[in-house]
Amino acid sequence: MIWLRRSVQGLVLLIFLALLAANRPTTGTAPESPVGIFFDLDPLVLVGTWLATRSFADLSLLGLATLLVSVILGRVFCGWFCPFGTLHNMMGSLRRQFRKVRPRVEGYSRWQRAKYFVLVALLLMAVFGAPWFGVLDPFSVLYRSLTVSVLPVCHVMVSAVANAIYMSDPHLGSMHLRDLTEPFYIWWQDSVTGADIRPFQGSGLIFLIFTAALVFNLVRNRFWCRYICPTGALLGLVSWRPILRLVSDSESCNSCGACTMSCPAAAQPEKPDEWLGSECFGCWNCVGSCKNASLDFKFTLPGRGPAQGAIDLGKRRTMAAVAAGAGTLAMMRITPDSQGATNNPKLIRPPGARPEREFLQRCIQCSMCMEACPTGGLQPTWHEAGLEGVWTPMLVPAIGYCEYECHACGQVCPTGAIMPLTIEEKKQVKIGLAFFDTSRCLPYAYGRECIVCEEHCPVKNKAITFELRESKQRDGTVKTLKFPRVDPELCIGCGICETKCVFQDRAAILVTSAGESRNPDNQPLLSGASDSYESFDEEFSDDPYGSQ
Amino acid sequence: MSTTTRRDFLKTSALVGGGLLLTDPTSLLAQEATAQANMAITHWDPALLPEADLAGVATRLTEATMEAMGGMGRFVSKGDVVWVKPNIGWNRRPELAANTNPDVVGTLVRLCLEAGAKSVKVGDHTCNPARQCYRTSGIAKAAEDAGARVVYLDKKRFRDVKLGGEFLDEWPLYTEVMDADLVLNVPVLKHHGLTEASMAMKNYMGIIGGQRNAWHQNMAACLCDITRFMKPTITVLDAVRTLTAHGPQGGNPDDVKLVGTMAASTDIVALDAFGASVLGHEPSAITNIQAAHDQGLGTMDWQSLSPIERTLS
């Protein structure tokens, strides 16, 4: 049974990684594989997003199946399925391999209640529209960490080695080393990461948190799952009295303690009447470790079966968790942006992102959109959307732009925070507006030709036009130059002008969030009835911007 | 020394072989070609063009143009590695004429392989993400179907090369392109916001790295330097569809004009000059053409090459 479990865990982890790779940027449209299936199955995503939006619209109900399975089988989701849990298991095995110390007893600690308080605080925040549970949801943590840190790290290493071998071309006669490395490198780019290394800002912190979560297994086996994981806590609540229970035969038990030592969850298998159903991962370690076959999992009818241990959260502690959640959220909301006093110019949301408040109700900070973005321009925020919106996606045109013929981010978003627009709909959405810094722009500031921005502008009939003007040079000669200008009616804020500007330190044309379709309070330029913001609303009135 | 001899020998034999094949007296075209044409222009009958199957038109125009130039064997030797360099700069469909016609590229690949090339590679330094450009343009499929290997350029594989130009001394170029025996430059004829017309000389910007956007500050001089360095022996111009406004990227189908013409020349400046005239410009109005003419890289008086001009139907 334990080997069966390990096989299932390994397989699920591989599927998780394969689907992550399948979400690499390819054609600019939706990947063919069900890349978001793990988030569909995640019960915390379902419950949290429902609490935030009070609607099942654009939500997968597969999470209900996970809840149902947990009611019957307990937290097998944690023990058999969760790929983050599997990584923790692997760390635990490493500990046993490398630290040749006597296994120690890690009994139940009351600190394990912490995860329930974390859950309560996060759900309270969700009720008020901040799905901060994405910051701690295990699938989000894993997907985000792999996307913005682990994969780029691997890509940097692979490409450094492959390029070094290619460029130096070590060979023995007609045998070239690069004939071996090139096929692998091409496979890696075509099947794993996509072509270009996509660096992410703030990836260091995300990587540190991820590493810390893994390293803490050296302190306590499956530290994250026992003490922190809010999804585990949610499943613990519904599997308080599971149908499949651990039953022990007290006559054959010689109290050797092997089960306790093998239990990664500290679920007290050694105490016949105090086994903790809400903590147990159903991993079968205890059954496997018992020399006397005193333990087994058996189906029991609700209300029947042996007594169980219970976790007493305590009314006062629970209320404290509620208060902590409310206080944290209120603290996050006292920013000028949250209160509508300002609009952060850098907060350029991906095309199809809902109005900010609705967007934050849904975004679970999973980074799926960032993984799918072909230019690497979608980056995790740090403070730009306030602490409430940490690690949500924003376009940073200095790094990469929004490709005109691509709508991948909205197609892969698992919660509909970015709406799945068609390519033609997406081309109508303004995510920002470009403006020139004429104190740097070459024709204005240095009397030279350029118009690289105009060349790259993808909009039909060009949102960057130019005017022929005479420019007097230092030696008195007069040159006729093309002076570029932005047409605010046509500019959609894709940012390619900023990305491609010849100034690579700070572009002479910059894009900010001004004029974004989703925000009626960020419209500096007066437009008549034919404005695209209005017509977009009418055309897609079943899912309009700006309405709650 | 010995390698040069071998290469020269192969080239000579290929030329002789090609010449023998082309002395078929039934073909007027072939007789002209034996005189080693320096330029060939092939049109599709404009009256039939709107109804025509464009893929077939592009293929036949390309074949006829290369045949008029004396066959691909004149430029490709047995065992050569050929880099076909279309314009694949933009994530645009073929109908929008921002990239070279995929059937033109496919046909050229096939002709190179038929002429005995060891391998044919197709690649460009794109402006939009490469994999999307190669796919949307239809060039990835056409090239692979014809037997080429599609190469996506890697940022780390440009090497500083001494150009020794009049303006630029050194610039990073793509290593794999430099390693090829022949670079077959095949641009699409289109409008360009800065230079008014973008053709073969401008298409060389797809083999350079570095901060290439800075070339816009002195485009004519930079294009002359790269052209002088590349010493093209044959250049092919795709004017099956041309982009007449909002280039080099376009995006508006109304800007695309169906012309149905292919041209090739041993003189890249003459070819660009012809392209400029198709777009309705005096060649001298395009600064890089005028500069190249002045620097002796070729002649912008393309008619002086007495091009073989034919119309197919």
Descriptive key words:
heterodimer; A: 548 residues; mainly alpha; Alpha-Beta Plaits; two-stranded antiparallel ribbon; two-stranded antiparallel sheet; 24 helices; 10 strands; elongated; disordered C terminus; B: 313 residues; alpha/beta; Rossmann fold; 6-stranded mixed sheet; 4-stranded parallel sheet; 12 strands; disordered N terminus
Give a written overview of the molecule.
The complex is a heterodimer of chains A (548) and B (313). Chain A is mainly alpha-helical and 548 residues long. Chain A is 44% helix and 8% strand. Chain A is built from 24 helices and ten strands. In chain A, the strands form five sheets. In chain A, strands 1-2 form a two-stranded antiparallel ribbon. A two-stranded antiparallel ribbon of chain A has the order 3-4. In chain A, strands 5-6 form a two-stranded antiparallel ribbon. The longest helix of chain A has 31 residues, at 138-168. Chain A is elongated. Chain B has a single domain (2-312), classed as LarA, N-terminal domain (Rossmann fold). Chain B has a six-stranded mixed β-sheet, sandwiched between helices. Chain B is α/β, with parallel strands linked by helices. In chain B, strand 5 and strand 6 (170-174) form a beta hairpin. In chain B, helix 4 packs parallel to helix 6 (139-145) and helix 9 packs across helix 11. The A-B interface holds A 25-28, 159, 163, 166-167, 189, 194-196, 374-375, 403-406, 442, 448-452, 454-462, 466, 482, 500-502, 504 and B 91-92, 127-132, 135-136, 152, 154-157, 159, 175, 192-194, 211, 213-214, 216-219, 246, 248-249, 251-252.
